[in-house]
Amino acid sequence: ISETAKTLWKVYLLLTVLEIVLLFVGGMSFFDSVCHAFCTMPTGGFSTWNGSIAHFNSSYIDVIIIFFMLFAGINFSLHYKLIKGDFKIFVKDPECRVFLLLVAVLTIIVMLNIYGSVYSSLSGAFRYAAFQVSSIITTTGFVTADYDTWPSLSKHILVFCMFLGAMAGSTGGGIKIMRVKLLVRHSYQEIFHLIHPHAVTTVKLGGKPVPAPILSSVWGFFILYMGLFVVATLMIASLGLDFVSALASVAASIGNVGPGLGIVGPVQNYLSIPTAGKWILIFCILLGRLENYTVLALLVPEYWRK
Question: What sign for the dihedral angle of Cα 134, 137, 141, 147?
Answer without folding.
Answer: positive
